[in-house]
């Protein structure tokens, strides 16, 4: 079962997509954090797939309305952003649309919404009391930042999200982290050694997997320029196994 709901936060309300597993048992909670395209059909599908894997899933809308409208009014924009010969033409549109999310007040509001999602999932009648997060690109970055900012998180998965900056923030992470990315994602790969070293320095449980044949957004099956079915399947299986391991102990 899935539905769109509204969650109360310290600063107002947050729209979210809720997907529930079938059955009457107790289940772990999972926050699915969007890419920069918003809680679209793809993210809702991901949420519902995780519900079928046995999680109570919330996919909150963190992005400003104006950002979503600009980025989604032309469906081709997503494909062109990953097409080398067209990237330079669409990058200014994406850069202007996403400018608000780089402001400090946005980050504070996003973390507030994510912490409210943790509240909701912990209190859910079917909850086993544990909560994890998984995010993609923008959402991968915020999955890591939620782990930094909420010690209640029991597991964190980030797919092609940016490493925290500054890296000394990782000292606050209190849960295991799984980091999945593609070798051709040069910007993230350049930062991986320092990220791994920082996690090791602070004795964090950290697993990273680098897929050699792909770049960014390899799990998004709505983007034919980036999607890789074999890699996506393996990454999905690893994420599900990791989450079950740490959310059902």
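Sequence proposed for the structure above (249 residues):
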């Amino acid at each position: 079962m899935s539905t769109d709901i509204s969650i109360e936060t310290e600063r107002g309300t947050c729209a979210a997509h809720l997907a529930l597993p079938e059955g009457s048992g107790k289940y772990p909670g999972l926050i699915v954090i969007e890419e920069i395209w918003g809680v679209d059909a793809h993210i809702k599908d991901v949420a519902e797939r995780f519900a079928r894997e046995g999680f109570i899933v919330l996919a909150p809308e963190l992005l400003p309305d104006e950002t979503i409208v600009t980025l989604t009014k032309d469906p081709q924009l997503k494909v062109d952003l990953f097409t080398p010969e067209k990237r330079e033409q669409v990058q200014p549109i994406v850069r202007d649309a996403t400018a608000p999310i780089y402001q400090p007040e946005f980050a504070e509001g996003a973390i507030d919404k994510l912490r409210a999602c943790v509240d909701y999932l912990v209190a859910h009648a079917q909850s086993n009391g544990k909560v994890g997060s998984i995010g993609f690109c923008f959402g991968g970055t915020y999955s890591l930042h939620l782990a930094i900012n909420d010690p209640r998180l029991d597991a964190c998965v980030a797919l092609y999200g940016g490493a925290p900056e500054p890296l000394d923030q990782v000292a606050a992470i209190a849960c295991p982290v799984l980091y999945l990315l593609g070798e051709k994602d040069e910007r993230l790969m350049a930062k991986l050694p320092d990220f791994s070293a920082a996690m090791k320095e602070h004795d964090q449980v950290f697993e990273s997997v680098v897929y050699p044949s792909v770049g960014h957004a390899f799990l998004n099956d709505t983007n034919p320029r980036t999607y890789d079915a074999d890699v996506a399947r393996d990454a999905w299986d690893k994420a599900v196994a990791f989450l079950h391991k740490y959310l059902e102990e």
